[in-house]
Fold each of these.
Amino acid sequence: MNKHTVITHFILIIGALFMTLPVWVAFMTSTHAPETIMREGLQFWPGGHFLETYNEVLFEPGGVMKKVTALGMMKNSLILGIGFSVGKVIISMFAAYAIVYFRFRMANFLFWIIFMTLLLPLEVRIIPSYKVVADLGLLDTHTGLIVPLIASATGTFFFRQFFRSVPDEILEAARLDGASAWRFFIDILVPLSKTMIAAILIIMFVVGWNQYLWPLIMTTKEENYTLVIGIKQIYQVLNEGGELPQFQKAFALTILATLPPVLVVLVFQKWFVKGLVESEK
Amino acid sequence: MKRVQFEHSPIPYLFVAPQLLIIAIFFLWPAGQAVYQSFLLEDAFGLSSQFVWFRNYSDTIFNEGWLQSAWFTAIFSSLVTLLSLGLALLLAVKANEVIRGASTYKTLLMWAYAIAPPVAGLMGNLMFNPLIGDLYHFMNSFGYDFDHKLHETDAAFVVILISVWKQVSVNFIFFLSGLQGIPKSVTEAATMDCKSPTRRFWTITFPLLAPTTFFLMVTNITYAFFETFGIIDTTTQGAPGGATTTLVYKVFQDGFRGADVGGSSAQSVVLMLIVLILTVIQFRFIERKIHY
Amino acid sequence: MNLFKKLAVGAVTSMSLMASAAYAQVEIQWWHAMGGRLGEVVEEIATKYNASQSEYVVVPTYKGGYEDTMTAGIAAFRAKQQPNIIQIFDAGAATIIYSKGAVVPVADLLEKYAGGFDSTDYIEGVRYFYADSDGKMIGMPFNSSTPLLYYNKDIFAKVGLDGPPATWEELEAMAPKLKEAGYQALAQSHSPWIWAENFMSRHNLPLATANNGYDSTDVKILYNTPELRMHWTKVKEWLDKGWYGYYGRGWGDNQDAFVQQKVAMWLGSSGSFGGLTKSAEFKFGAAYLPYWKSVVDEPTSTFIGGAALFAMAGKSEEENKGVADFLKFLTNPEMQYFWHRETGYVPITNAAYEMAKADGYYDSTPDAEIGILQLTQKSGEWTKGYRLGFYVQIREVMYKNFEDILSGKASVEDAFAAIEKDGNALLARFHDTYK
């Protein structure tokens, strides 16, 4: 091994440590008793309280009004993640197909509208979006949580790029065979896009699961909290001066909030990376 | 445009309708409302309103708090973008060179993409907690009184650190992909022409990565402007004294906490304009310099 | 299904519909911001009320912290889905009171449906904050507290101090001794509330023009005064000398410093002693908020913080009757005493206070009385509280500038000039909005 390779590995190891150490420490600390943490600070090695803490956090109602468990919040996060990703894929595939494969009057104009939504994320219009959802009576509902998030055109953009890369010969061949627009879509294009669909599903699941600002303002009942916003509220309770701070529970919650998307990303790593990178082109 | 297309069918309208409907209801309508309300002085309950032209805008833009958050947003975004791009590039280059353990490194370096900004913020907050946080004690051990609750630079440091940490993964993935996309013939020719790896990198590799870098710059700036909301809300909440308030955080504070509809709408519109201008600048000026 | 079954199902359905119509109770929606133990007591109150009569059912819902609850209430009102009762905090009072048509004054409701309303039933320090300038109560104070000084009796004994300081001058005399023993003398948990608003009240100084904002929205704040500047100059000195510690804006962080015995004294709320009893592993006591002898010979009372219950407008007469009935229930001395005992918030009526005294509550828990005693101390022209718009943002301005003073980024003069300028700009905006 020459010097250059040693340095390379060294840099990579430091980088890997930088990226993984915080979560390792968070996980280890979550397995200790709160008194230990108060006395000694963050922990690097496992303690004996893993089952006890995670059991409490998952199954015992916590939160401000004691109405929600981590398990309940995970369920909400799951509904959000899956609902969002599936909804997005379906709606954007349809829209992208229309834009790419049809010559109709408004196609270009529509494309630009869709492009605009990419530039202006939800955060710039949260107050009026909140009002619209409230007026429609959709606060604290799964519909109100998921549907407005689909209003950004990232998915349409991805699929548009992908469809444009599909060779024209395939379409020609299908038309020669007498396929209608609908048939072409269902029988040929969709199966062709399988990898892309999988990748987008995975990416959007992570995006949906990790949503913060929107769920924060439009869920007002604790039972409807997703995990990602629930941990902040619960942390505030843990912190409300007085009782012994339950840091191990706070860390346990962060681990639980991270686990599903990380698992999804790691297990489907290949597709996920492919999807991300394909979309850039 | 595709050469071959379907024509004269109701299908495109049907297919595009759901997306358009959602965009109309949940994007165009609220955006329009934001613009409309920015011209009004309205009481919190919507019971009375007056049209005041650009007063909300002048109240906003000439307000010290807004200027402070605009300034902070600019510095914060630049630092986060530069640092996370730089770190990611370094790691990607190294990961590309290495053969043994390549996929392990890759996995370890990219997984943080999946973690939500507020969760990262909460973890970071706990690690800087004066009672138990090792990082807090570490920073204090240099003889400097580190206190991110009181000192502005310290608070900014914490927020920037966590934001960069989270973003390195995404950039890493793209840079690595970009590097792996460089044809072997090019790298071989470069190695023959140019003995110094550093020179090789700057004259050949880096320009070839330009499209990727450009794309990442746009996404990183958007990330720093908007997605870091989750990090700020779980760590400093914009404190101390508004020093870590980004523009979007201020929109949230004034609209949601302060019940100032006109003011936060005006801020939203101004923020939209800023992002629009930034994007246009990036596309026009920087993209020109990139040779594909 | 065959015909017979269909008829049977139809009959049962219509009978049960009629039955439920007969037993239909009027639902009263109550949105509140009380979490944790406080929320549990809120639920208990609702349960007690529902059990005590059969016409109305009160349904409490926790909507988040004070700001979130107010925001939710505002959005609901705009969507015509507002609750019957909403809990609004001190900083939000101006917003809801000046939005004409948003609420029905509780005094009016109680007069009309619950046999009358006499504001002298209410403790003086509590009476005025949510009333209009004629003294008519718009909101009913619910969870009221006032700033108090808590001190660590164990540390005091160790260092040889007799008792808590009555004045800031006395605190300055004690601080060096505490520092020698390794303790910071003081921490506090809400700089605007304790060291601006109640500072003015304690020294009987006006905090805004237009009768502290009660008379009109055309108002300017009066924080930029020599007395308050002097106080904050001192606070900065104390910070530099190690006599005062600032643990951030979080209420809990500063309270923790007291519980961890890093500081010997802590300025908190009259409601804090319940939590302290559970978490403090040392003997502690409560005392009055100190004042400057150099500013005033005899201090005047402080006023209440916390929140009040407002009856939202646009509801049916049936429901308004229920709201009046529930509010009357809440003001019963028994309920007040219950709430006071369980939460540490002060009882708001004289009758409740008398009941607690007669019950010997203060003999066993003398600290619980200090808050009320302070609220019933000598009142002055400026002890009524304040009514200022956009006050949430004004408090932000205050936090920012106070933090700038403490970190040394701004001088006391500059900081207060900024508070005055930005605060008045916000008030002018509010005035124009709510003309």
Amino acid sequence: MSLRGRAYIAGAYEHPDRRLPDRSTPQIFRDVAAGALADAGLDLGDIDAVFCDSNIGGLSSLTVSEYLGVRARYLDSTDLGGSSYLAHVGHAAAAIAAGKCSAALVLLAGRANTPVRAPELPENGFEPIYGPTVVAEYALVAARHQYEFGTTAEQLAEIKVAASQHAQYNPHALLPDPVTVDDVLASPVIADPLHRLDCCVITDGGGAVVVVSPEIARSLPRTCVKVLGHGEAVKHAINGGGDLTYSPAVWSGPAAFAEAGLTPGDVDYASIYDSFTITVLVALEDLGFCPKGKGGAFVADGALRSPSGSLPFNTDGGGLCSNHPAFRGGMTKVIEAVRQLRGEAHPNVQVPDCQIALAHGSGGSITTRMGSATLLLGVADA
Amino acid sequence: MSALPTPAPPVTPETAPFWRAAAGGELTLPRCTRCARFVWYPREFCPHCGGGEVSWQPVSGRGQIYSVTVVRRAPHPAYADAVPYCVAVVELDEGVRLLTNIVSSELDAPAIGQPVEAIFDPVDDERAIVRFRPVPIGREGAS
């Protein structure tokens, strides 16, 4: 059974703040739940399912449902890092299609500026002792991509430039000023070959979406977005045999397209996870928007710029310029796709007649172990 | 030895043989007794074929750089005083790719494809951290 058309996103809300020193993570959960419910025109009592990552600790989705006061009959704390929320939308749609629940809250809340202790993990003796920062792990991918395919720093920089062009129209963006390729290359190198402006922002906050059954969607005054397809996958470095030139999007993308009955050529707008510029480049190739190794040439032609490019991306400014709450960018990827399909993106970056959107998230780290999830979303009659 | 930090890795029953060998200046990897593939990071079972037994096999410690970066800012906390330092994925001659550091006096010198060999930085009597250094000029191909 396909979930195509069996579930809709009825509400979406992104926390407007980027620094929340005086608000606890549970409080932020409450903020984003209330925001998404208000957008959907629903009350907490209408919700019967809760989806969130395991960041809060404790019993995760159970802890959150208790805190929020949701009498949930379906809970899911699947943690795929920053891609969790895209997976959650797929899981919620499947659960709704299966009759397990009718209205699900998918939430992210956290504070990236609050230190957390790392849990005990089996790889701890063989990775952290070498000082591999997250930037360094993505830098290793960028270095290998440059070595194998001739990708240039200028091509990577264009991804940031396109995001910054979009961010200037987002009043909440942390970095709203447009930058040039030269600006990116002149910013300090964090880990070769990635510069500071190849990296996403660090922000507090979060977001939430509400996923409902077709019956509820029809009863609501808001424009609802149809869930067309979903795929998720993980890739890890068993035997250290990891090939750094691709991500698990090579599996999650085709699965989502197959379920939706669509191809990359059908996509009008794409939210692509952008923890770093190289994250976008690899995902574009893996999702099938261009051949492997050709991502550099693809972006250098201005493909990502809205509305002129062939594949407008991250029209909110993305993680590179606007928001990357709690080190997890997947939620905002869904939210901006909803805005585009509702025609509610900023007029200067709204894709005309946007019918089909792709939202792609990834999480963990691309050098070691990574989860990814891909959603295909459409307008109500798609 | 290098001048890099030597944060103490946790020793578990699964990994103790690796650390003991490294403390003695030897690189050993677990290898499945059924499908003969190497297992990395170390486990007491085979994640490839599901085999329940591995044996520890000494390997050459030689390989080449698969990818490499120099961390110049925002270092790992344990490396706060070591910036800049080199993080790499090395592909051993036996085919296993592992995360490590390249120890070199010239940080810009390490390049993808560069032949390297293992060195061992002692932590204590039970453990040493395995890192790699470029094979000195004229010794490439030496056994």
Amino acid sequence: MNDFLELVVGATASGCIYGLVALSYLLVTRPTGIINFAVGEWSMVAAFGGFMLLSRWELPYPVGMLVVVAAMFGVGWATERFTVRPLVERGAPPLAPILALLGMLVVFRELVSLGFGPDPQPVPPSFGFGRLELGPLAGSYQSFFIITMAGAVFGAAWWFFERTLAGKSFEAVAIDRRAAALMGINLRLVTSLAFAASAGVAGLAGLLVAPNVSAHYLMGLPLAIQGFTALVIGGVGRVEGALLGGLILAFAEQFTVRYAPVPPGLAMGVPLVLLIVFLLIRPTGLLLPREARA
Amino acid sequence: MKKTFLRTALSLATGAVMMMAAPAAMAQTIKIGLITDKVGPAKPYAEPVTAGAVYAVKELNAKGGLLGRQVELLVEDDQGKPDVSATAARKLVDAGAAFILSVSLTPATQQAQSVTLETRTPHMTPSNSGDTLTTQISNANFWQTGPLASTQIATLLSYARNKNFKRVALVTENSALGQLTNQFFKAGLEKNGIQIVSEEVVPGGSTSADPQMQKVRASNPDALFMTGVTTPENALILRSYRQLGMKTPILANYNMSVPVYSSVAKGLLDGVAFVDAFDPAKAETQRFIEAFKKDSGNEPYNLNGYGYDGLMLVADAIKRAGSTDKDKVREAMQATRGFQGVMGGVGASYGFADGRRTGFDTNGMVVRVYEGDKQGKVVHVGVK
Amino acid sequence: MKSLLGFVVAAVVLSAVAFMLGSYQTDIYRKLLLWTTLALSYNFLFGIAGQVAFSHFTFYGIGAYAILILLFQVGLPLPLAVLAGIALCVVLALVVAIPATRLEGFYLALATLAFAQLFIVVLNEGRTVTGAAGGLANYRLPDVFGVRVTGPWYTVVIVLLLLGTLAVLWRLDRSWFGRACRAVRDNPEAARAMGVDVARTKIIAYTITSAMAGVAGMVYAFVDNTVNPPIFGLPNSFLLLFMVIVGGSGRHAGAIIGAALLYLMPFVLSPLIGHHHALVFGVVMVAVVLFQPKGLIGLWDALMARRRAA
């Protein structure tokens, strides 16, 4: 039973990471319809940022974290400004920005690998590596920190989209771009902010997961795929969907490995099969967008 | 008039000297090929091995070269892709390489063998540890002096003999080499009558190794053998191990000897026993460390040593063959006995006795234990 | 008739080249031809039929492993093994196509991505059937009617594969089917309204192109005489996509240019700028999408148009 509860904490933390990456996709996909596969590389860039600021220069954790996330806002904004905006304004087909971002995926990865070398680098956790017991639940400090941070981010995102006017304008852009523009919503600003926020969230995910897996230049693609899977499972329409998808994916992965009588090599196939099944049976994901329910 | 005469004489003399020097400069270099990975997944391991080989060439040339000629190292990048490795091998063969060294991924070395088999070019890997490289294809031109997985497990078992492990767990990841190492560790354990009570795989890209480690903990093994070769997954495994409060003794494959773990797995390494092939206290090794550090400014570690030894073995074979003729070199290489290198414990040597093509001394690996985050001194040598 | 002559001339010229090359150049040439073949069929699937799939290289792998297993483990004679291999690729492509083509855009991409990864997992777990992580090696092409096909003659086989693939795709493209594919790509609703069976068109396009990739894989198996899981991994699937984009999607000539450029680029750049060539890849991809979305073939067209206008 202890094992079970401890795994619950660990799987929740992993699920939060997947959920944050899924949220990163969602923040851009909702208003623009663009799928940014480079989110994994954004996480990687932030992880290396964490290495520089927190391991090398040993800044205090909150300072380092804020600087990295702020820098990621900048990276997201720049990515949109230079590789996406020219395409959108030219009226290029929707596939074009997606492909440009795929190219950026390679560019980010190679720049980091050239700058830092091929070896993985350490990133410190927020509160050190200790074990915390909260009643029957137990896990590492970092796991609880991840859960708390993800909770805060999702809480803020939910509040933003549900309760603020600015958030509603994002939704408006998502529902109908042209109408939103006609209503006076600044499309350019929305897109820029969406990319910036997306990069910030992806960066946070990278910073949170790196203490456990280290910062290494190949970490982007697996995160991108896991995040995308979470998004598909949870549904693109709602912020909560990203978190739900992430949790379901993480729980399916980890509990299958722990309890299912499947040989270890094949257990890796479980999330893949799960994804394929979901795509075939329920491609819109578990949670439908708000307008569909009315 | 005199000035012109002087000038003409000077230019003629210079021309004559240059003409005499020219043949020497145009003398044929001995070309040795090296296939490495500069951009792919093997890069963290291939780069230092390459650096060791490059330094070896420098040292050789400074001492007058090989057979009176300078040695030229032709380095090709296979990007960690096995099919590109085969292409790179062809390029090196066409360029006249007398010998080819492969230091990239295990499947890449395997694929390059299809070329060296066909062209009967001497070929060696000084760093790959997959046992199947010399068994899957019957290639008489191919040798392996990397630390075989079978030697690693034999050394670890010999170290652990008095601890009487009866039931053990294996944890690895899903790369080709990780799976291969696991396979041979398993075989070695089972041959010694030890029961494997759990065998887990942490896939690449995982965010946690908790489920796998919980299973291991639940199976209550006497010892845990780590057979994975990728840094992030091994770090996850060690993190989980501490997190779950496990106390099972850990014995790890030689991948854990790479210095990157001291920074990435800080605080997690104390007490981990690992098999290595580098004894810094050995005289030969100390000499190498001093010389390498003076040349590059960096302290060398075991991966550099593999590259260095590999190249020196090749040079030794060519020297004994007396030429770069492929058949003569092959015979000379196969005849290598008792070659003392940088790697291996005290008294270890390389050799290919009895037609074997794996040359690392089966008695030459050592076991070291991490003390805190630093690699402790050698506590055990060989498989006695 | 003219096109048949064109094909024969191309076959002769491309084959003649094979006899003039050293062993390193032959290796590059053969793999270039194979990548071009893959790019052509992928271009049809992605550029003409508009399906964003990452399973193309996986079918290449399925073909390669299938022929080896059928030849050396099931023990079929070569002609039968080839036919059985093709049949297997077609059946598998159908099995994947029927559910997959119901998915749109990025869902299809994701499903095929998962399929590609699943293939690698199956390969790694296949023990002696697939050779697991080490793959299959130590074999060679059996004699065909007592004749050993090696060296430049095998390159001729690859040339024929390439031209055969191009011929089939060209005919398909110019036929009613090609137009149906484009209609489905651009506007499925309108296509349906015009009487095109959208689902069937998509399934057929996917099946044919994937089966072609499988056949190319069968030929590849005997180029290096080694197959293993890393060869058929995701990075090569992405590379195929990049080739088609950079060359110009929807155009056969574009696929050929893209394949040639991106395949040869690392070999040319590596001696010059070392391992930075991967960075150049990404930059080229972004630059092409930003400045020349029609691909490099678009530049050629512009050049031709200017000449005609002048």
Amino acid sequence: MGVFDKDRIEEIERKRREWEEGTLKRSLERLGLKQSPVRFYTPADLRDFDFLEKVGFPGEYPFTAAEYPSLVPELRIRGGVSSLLVRASSYSGYGTAEDTRDYYNYMRSAYGRRGGPNIAFDLPTQCGYDSDSPMARGEVGKVGVAIDTLQDFELLYEAFVGDNDLDKIASNFTINAPCNVILAMYFALAEKRGIPLDRLRGTPQNDILKEFAARGTYIFPPKPSMRMARDTITYCTQHAPNLNTISICGYHVREAGATPIQMVGFTLSNAIAYVQLGIDAGLDVDTFMRRFTFLAWSTGMDFFKEIARARAGRRVWAKIMRERFEAKNPRSWMLRGGGGMGVPTHTLTAQRPLNNVARCVVTGIGNAMSGAPPFGGIPYDEPMGLGHSLEAQQLSLDAGRIMQFEAKLADVIDPLAGSYYVESLTDEAEEQIWGIIHKIDAMGGAVAAIEKGYVQREIARSAYQYQKEVEAGERVIVGVNRFIGEQELEVLTTRLVEHPYDPRKRAEAEEKQLRSLAQVKRERDDGQVQATLRRLKEEAKDEGVNLIPPIMEAVKAYATVGEICDVLRGVFGEYEAYNVTA
Amino acid sequence: MAKERRIRVLIAKPGLDGHDRGARVLTLGLRDEGMEVIYTGLRQTPEKIVQAAIQEDVDVVGLSCLSGAHRYLFPEVVEQLKSKGVEDVMVLGGGIIPKEDVPFLKEKGVSSVFGPGTSIKEIANYIRENVKRK
């Protein structure tokens, strides 16, 4: 039942017409305008709005208000220090395993960072090539750490022993196509340290569908790639139940050019495909959903629409899980990790970069308006290359503190619930998101839509549309396509580099890694390596077999990431990208 | 009057970087600017890029890299073009290229480097004004 009386709505509509013909019209005439540049919303825009059906209570179906019943802002529980900053690392890793190990040790001693690593891997590792592959030239140790064999993992994790041993920390791995190889290394390392797998906590990214759609570090074709994801879900559900199995990403889909609605539609379609994997493998949905998480959103600056999109996304997912997959546990209905409208990375500019602080405050407020704590976003110097400066990190942290403690934005959840404008935008967003999900369902699901190139093509089209709007001046970006005249002041920034990413180490990383890889290859038992790879090849041919155990045998024999992936390439084939611009 | 030959451009992603929003947008954008544009797709070795540039008889090769491997990959493409006797193809760079690397890349034969926020028009005009083959 709606909260508004029908007669009252009619009265509002009548009054609105009077207002439009009277007060508004007179004002517009005075201003010399034909049409009002601003809009005003009333209960008539919502009509039969039903609070319990549309919003509900925080942490309850349909989760429109928030995923959790009460927000516990990071800043509050940590005494004013963001956990993002005290973690052993934000997303990090560079050079060789030893360089990265030293980095973690340094961050702990110099900045008091604690907890587990959030490991960035270099591109050869992410794409399943060894450091000595011709494909890896120039890329070794860039954008992340080079991992070729278990030995690299052993070296890196020398920074995590004692109070920081594997059963006391959580590890994050931004790895997708070779996710099970990295997990196998983590499991092998735990075994060597005598730590049972059920004590391990952490999150691998493992969202291969968005790699095809947006991020590009795929190896195998979609179907065998999905089998690998299924293996993670089934193996971990049984052996490592405290490890998240997947982090489903909308973020990269948006960064690649998707519109806000496409981001949610494509991502939830991908998520549906992953849930189906677990169900098809015969697992109980409420059991394996406990370990699904989302690295949900990237946001634009269109404040209210992004808030509505975030609220609608949670509602759509709750309906999918409860109605379509018939999950019983409310926890399974939650878009876990999908709080708030997200981070505004793609909106940040290299031009007049301090303006990015303003952008991050706008979206920080937006996060507080859409079911998350206010969040200072990302350091302003993100578009200037890797390695956030200390000053940029301080500004970002302080922005969050100001939003929380001065503006008191963390004192209320979903303050726009019931807003005539935001609720009607939320309904609109929900309808559009369903439109995309149904379209992809009709194509046979996310895997089929990606095989056909539909998702890739749509994203490319939206990216181009965005650029055309920027160039036509229809989409204003301050300091880039507007307000760039000579009378504007170029605000200068100074950046101190937080960590002395030793330029010498960076320059030498490739050479050093090649030497250590050659040494591992000399010292390992080749017969054993070949035997484990042969077994992997045989098991890979049988679609029903879970490949994590044979991969573990191979990594324990110090087979390389590249060797393991080559065996799988031989069985699965390689993905040939759909040419979106042909 | 003979129809003017359209400028032919190869947009390429050298290395393993998967961020090709810029490459895709530029491919479509330069087409709308009247050029013939071919996009290689991801994960191209310098060898493959040079081969494609020769086969497709392009006037311009636009390289995009956001992974930090540009200091190796861009000069490698220029060198390999030269070693095949191709001297009149303009090589452009784009992506996340730190300012301090630009002089190095230019010295190595990259004609110009375009960073985030550059408009398609700006790149198209640069190509028209500076393309070596006319």
